[in-house]
Amino acid sequence: MHTVITxxxxxxxxxxxxxxxxxxxxxxxxxxxxxxxxIVGNSVQAMARQPEMSGTVRTTMFLGxxxxxxxxxxxxxxxxx
Amino acid sequence: xxxxxxxxxxxxxxxxxxxxxxARRAALVTPLVALVIGLWRGxxxxxxxxxxxxxxxxxxxxxxxxxxxxxxxNPGLLMGVTLFSFVFRLILITVIGLGIKELDLVDWPVFCIxxxxxxxxxxxxxxxxxxxxxxxPGLKPKPKEIWE
Lengths: 81, 148
Known about the structure:
Structural class of chain A: mainly alpha
Number of helices of chain B: 6
Number of helices of chain A: 2
Radius of gyration of chain A: 20 Å
Largest interface: A-B, 34 and 42 residues
CATH class of chain A: Mainly Alpha
Radius of gyration of chain B: 19 Å
Mean pLDDT of chain B: 82
Distance between the termini of chain B: 49 Å
Number of strands of chain B: 0
Largest sheet of chain A: none
CATH topology of chain A: F1FO ATP Synthase
Shape of chain B: flat
Shape of chain A: rod-shaped
Oligomer: heterodimer
Mean pLDDT of chain A: 82
Number of domains of chain A: 1
Order of helices and strands of chain A: HH
Number of domains of chain B: 1
Structural class of chain B: mainly alpha
Number of strands of chain A: 0
Low-confidence stretches of chain B: none
Strand content of chain A: under 5%
């Protein structure tokens, strides 16, 4: 049994690691996707309610999107480091 | 004139302003960080810092250009374009990152760590600046008011 596990680990090790990394990266991109959707959705609503404030809303929205994207970037880095 | 343009008044290109400001800060910081890291870990690490900060600035500028263009042209498309831009830029960053890794040009761990730390440092620095001046110019304390 131990030999079989060792053989599987040696044969599948790199590809398994790569596959799990890709799945992890995909999972890490879900959170920012939801976050960006919420940020932009609420920003569009705010701009529709108060069009005169759209400059301020877009500024805050852009920074919010950038912060949400940082999570995806962390996922990328952790996958390949 | 479309309905969207009637509802939303013309506004300045705030996204590009933020991205340009961020790029300016990155340009100030990059040589110093590259020098320090280069002295510590060698020229590969210095190159990694330059590549990572360049990738970050490129990502910000591209994001700002896409969002600013859509917000000015047709705000109704903002939602969809933002999400597709996120996916597109994520793919672009992955391809460029993997290309850099495959070419073995730079110190990979330094590249990854600079990517994360640089992103947060530049963003927090910019957010601090925006909260003081760009978004709310009236809130920025003037020296005259402080001493009065």
